[in-house]
Amino acid sequence: GRLAVRKSCRGRQYGERLVREAEGWLRGLHVKRLALSAQVRVRPFYEKLGYTASGDEYLDEYCPHIHMEKELTE
Fold this sequence. Notes:
Layout lengths: L13 H15 L4 E7 L3 H6 L3 E9 L2 E9 L3
Antiparallel strand pairs: 1-3, 2-3
């Protein structure tokens, strides 16, 4: 799936809150590492949240993507 915020609601940290809530829930399940496929244009959003890009860019449905990971700490 994708993370999406309505254009009229952007800039209010809803996306950041959603990601942080999901990370908290996963920590509770003792998940140690997260991985995702991010559209290249939103790479800075995920980097701001502590994700690191790895590997080369690739196309997913004709859109450039990058693999990103994050270690979850307690």
